[in-house]
Amino acid sequence: MSKVPGLLGALGAGLTRMGERLDERRVETEARADADAGLDGAARPARSDDSAVAAAVPSQAPVAVSSQVPAAGPAQAPAAVPSQEPSAAEAEESAATGSARQVAPDHVPAPPAYAPAVAARPDPVAAVPWGMRVAAEIGWRLLVLAGTLWVLMRVISAVRLVVLAFVAALFITALLQPTVSRLTRRGLPRGLATAVTAILGFIVMGLIGWFVVWQVMDNLDTLSDKVRAGIEELKRWLLNSPFHVTEDQINQVAKNLSDTIGHNTNEITSAGLQGVTVLVEVLTGILLAMFSTLFLLYDGKNIWHWVLRLVPEQARPAMEGAGPRAWRTLTAYVRGTVIVALIDAIFIGLGIYFLHVPMAVPLAVFIFLFAFIPLVGAVISGALAVVVALVTEGVFTAVMVLAVVLLVQQIEGHVLQPFILGRAVRVHPLAVVLSVAAGGLIGGIGGSVVAVPLVAVTNTVVGYLRATAKENALRASEGPPEP
C-alpha cells in the first residue's frame, strides 16, 4: 500500500508532461500559420488560452517538473522557479505587436485545391428571359388600362342619359356653330347670334318631328288595311304554294299568336309602363341637350380652357393643340353625315313615292335618322322600306324598292362619302364595323351613333400627339439654337 502514492505521483507527472508537449506543438503550429500569412510569430496577439502557456513556459522551452528539482528552502524558491510576470520590455513589445495585429486586415484563406468549383447564383431578374419580361411589363399595363376602361364604362352606364344628352349637344353644336360664327362676323352680339341660331334650329327639328308623327298617324289606317290585305294575300299564296300548307295549320298559327298575346297581358302592360318611363327619359334628355347646346354655342372656348386646367401642366401644350383639331374632325363628320343622310332620304323617298308605297315621307325621315349609324343604319332603313312595300304593294314593288335602295347606297359609298367627308374622318371599314358593334353592345343605338365619330376624333388626337412627340424629340436632339 505504501507504493500506491508513488505510482499515482508518477502517473500525474507523466500526464503533466504530455499536456505540456501538446501545448508546445499547438503553439508551434499557430506560429507556423502566422508565418505563412506574412506575419511574425511573435506579433501574434495573445489569446486567453495562450496566457496560461506563456506563464508556464516563458521561453517556449520545457520546464523541469517539481520531482526533478531538489528541495529548497523558502529563500531558494525564486531562483528555482522563474517569475510568472513579464518584464517591462516584454509588456511593451507585446502591446506593440497587439496593436499591429489589430491594424492588419483579416485574412481569408483560399479554398483547398480538392474543393469543387461552385458557380454563383444569377440574379433572379437576369434568369427570366427577355421576351417574358417584356410580356409581363406590357401585361400589367394592359391590366391597368383594362381596369380603368371598365370603371369608366361602369360610370358611363350609370349616367348614360346625361352622357348621351351631352353627346347629342356636341353634335348639334358642331352643326350650328358655323351659323353662329357667320352671324357674329356680320355684327350681331354673341348672345343674340346664339339665341337666334338655337331657336331656329330647335324649331326646324321640332317641325320635322311633328311632320313625321302627323304622316304616320294620317297613314296608319291605310297602312293597317294594307297590312291585313297583305296577310290575306300571303295566306292564299301559302295555300297554293308547293309547301302543302293547309288552312287548318294557318288558323292554328293565328290561334297560337292570339293565345300568346292573351296570356302575356301582364308583360305587355309592364312593357307599356316601361315605355312611359322611356318617354320621360327621352324628354329629360332632350331638355339636357337643349341647355348644353346653348352653353356650348355661347361659351364653348371658355369651357375648353377650363377643361385644359384639369390636364397636367406638362401635357397642356399638346392637348391645347389637339383640341381644335379634334373639334374640326367632329364638325366635318357631322356636316358630312347630315349631307349624305339628306341625299339618301331625298332620293330613296322619291323612289318610294313614285312606286306608290304608303308613308313615303316617314320612311324617308327614318332613312335620314338611321344614316347616322354607319353601315348598319342603311341596311335597317332599306330593309324597313322593302318590307313595307312587300306588305302593301306586292313582290314586284318590293323588288323595285330594293333596287332603288341599293343604287342610292352604292352612290353614297363610292361617291358621296369620299367626296364630302374627305380625309378628315377617314377610318378603315374594319374599324367602322368593330366600333359600331362595340358601341351597340355597350350603349345600344346611342352607342352605335357615337362609336364612329369617337374613333375618328381619337385617331386625329393620337396622330397629332405622336407627331408632336417626334417633333419635340428631334428638337431636343438638335440642341438649343445658337445665338
UniProtKB/TrEMBL annotation:
Keywords: Cell membrane, Membrane, Transmembrane, Transmembrane helix, Transport. Residues 18-35 have a biased composition (Basic and acidic residues). It is found in: Cell membrane. It comes from the Bacteria. PANTHER family: PERMEASE PERM-RELATED (PTHR21716:SF53), TRANSMEMBRANE PROTEIN (PTHR21716). Belongs to the autoinducer-2 exporter (AI-2E) (TC 2.A.86) family. This is AI-2E family transporter. It comes from Streptomyces noboritoensis. The lineage of its organism: Bacteria, Bacillati, Actinomycetota, Actinomycetes, Kitasatosporales.
